[in-house]
Amino acid sequence: MTNLHTPTPQQTEENLEERFRSQLASLDDHSNLRQLPSILHEERDIIVNGQRMLNLSSNDYLGLASDIELHREFLDTLTPETFLPSSSSSRLLTGNFTVYDRLGQQLAEGFDTDDNFTVYAELEQTLAQLFGTAAALVFNSGYHANTGILPAICDARTLILADKLVHASLIDGIRLSGAKCIRFRHNEYCQLERLVEEQHSNWNSIIIVTESIFSMDGDAADLEELVHLKKRFPNVYLYVDEAHAFGIRGDNGLGCAEEQGCITDIDFLVGTFGKSLASAGAYIVCKQVIRDYLINKMRTFIFTTALPPINIQWTSFLLQRLPERDTLKQTSQLLREALKQKGYDCPSVSHIVPMVTGTSSASLLKAEELQRKGFYVLPVRPPTVPEGTSRIRFSLTAAIRMEEISALINQL
After folding, report:
1. Which of 274, 298, 319 is the C-terminal boundary of a domain?
2. What pTM does this model have?
3. Which pLDDT does position 372 carry in this prediction?
4. Is residue 153 part of a domain?
5. Given this model, what pLDDT does residue 79 score?
6. Are residues 289 and 393 in the same domain?
7. pLDDT at residue 354, as a whole number
8. pLDDT in tens, 242-296
9. Tens digit of pLDDT for each residue in 252-267?
10. What are the residue ranges in the chain where pLDDT is below 70?
């Protein structure tokens, strides 16, 4: 008779911790170990260990998070009665404050300062006005949106066709959906078209999933081409994440969908407030039936405490004050061209500008070098990017001046 040894609770804990230590050591050996930095923010700068550096790693693309005068202006609008730091509940219970609906209305009908922007009743009505869509829904974060929408709208009869380089939150949402997924080569629409033609009759619905501006390469999807493709098939739908384009692209800063004139042709148009808008939260602009369905089926919406009303008020405040983006366009183009001249492969067409170094150790060394020279840049390593494509990710903002980019270029 075999004598099976049952480990004690102490042995189980030690085995678990031993596994953690082993994996952490392996990450360290491959220059992929991450640690939380101890940093001090001072307007546009980052201070680490007493060294002041220009922040080139922030997603504060419009420079709003570092605008102290803007902060003061917003705080002057608050009273003890309107300062609400917590919702204390899900929106389906007692957490659905009226400021949510006011912002939603602005985003759906289109931004118009003559339309009593600040007195709309609800947040989602604001969003629907701004985008000219029937409805909108606000979430706690982009991660909540992408990991919640896809599981809600997919079933066993759904096929997802996702760009190879979509964000981790979309990958997690795809996994949670339980739907079959095929990843097509990055921005290769001939392959995508072939997949749709081969598969459309086998599934009740096909959902094409992409970002508009990709977070690591800074290149962009051709949304017009994707819309044209999906319109050829009645059961094909399009899901676009505009996290890195909202506030930046389009005449009104609504993203690449506005820039390419196809907002209402995209079935699930998602964006965030935590980057260009320097706030917190995310949104979808969509048809009314989709909004109603998500409220009833989306677990990351139903089973979470709603965003604090103060965040919603700040988002509404900033939507009226989006700054010009001409300087950001110029600095981004200057850096992209300089990297290409220095021999780097730079696919970017945006304010996200990668400098691919190859190995993780090379990216670490380059980041340390540039930090010593006064530029706060960080290495991006696997699993965020594929093996062999570690990089410095320059994340430019509207607050960065041309002469500062020129000084950076001289140090590359």
Report:
1. 319
2. 0.88
3. 96
4. yes
5. 82
6. no
7. 96
8. 999 999 999 999 999 999 999 999 999 999 999 999 999 999 999 999 999 999 9
9. 999 999 999 999 999 9
10. 1-5, 10-13, 93-122
Tokens of 363: 């990216």
The reply to whether 40 falls in a domain is yes
pLDDT of residue 36: 87
Provide the CATH number for the domain around residue 296.
Answer: 3.40.640.10
Q: How far is CA 96 from the centre of its chain?
A: 24
- If asked whether residues 328 and 313 sit together in one domain, one would say no
**What is the pLDDT, as a whole number, of residue 46?**
92
| Alpha-carbon distance values, 258 to 139, 296, 411 (Å) | 21, 29, 36
What domain range is 378 assigned to? Answer: 32-63+324-411
Domain tally for the chain?
2
Is 117 a domain residue? yes
In a domain, residue 230? The reply is yes
- Give the pLDDT score at 97: 61
- Say whether both 215 and 123 belong to one domain: yes
CATH code: domain of residue 341 = 3.90.1150.10
Domain boundary among 272, 289, 319: 319
In SS3 terms, the chain reads as CCCCCCCCHHHHHHHHHHHHHHHHHHHHHCCCCCCCCCCEEECCEEEECCEEEEECECCCCCCCCCCHHHHHHHHCCCCCCCCCCCCCCCCCCCCCCHHHHHHHHHHHHCCCCCCCHHHCCEHHHHHHHHHCCCEEEEECCHHHHHHHHHHHHCCCCEEEEEECCCCHHHHHHHHHHCCEEEEECCCCHHHHHHHHHHHHHHCCEEEEEEECECCCCCCECCHHHHHHHHHCCCCEEEEEECCCCCCCCCCCCCCHHHHCCCHHHCCEEEEECCCCCCCCCEEEEECHHHHHHHHHHCHHHHCCCCCCHHHHHHHHHHHCCCCCCHHHHHHHHHHHHHHHHCCCCCCCCCCEEEEEEECHHHHHHHHHHHHHCCEECCEECCCCCCCCCEEEEEECCCCCCHHHHHHHHHHC
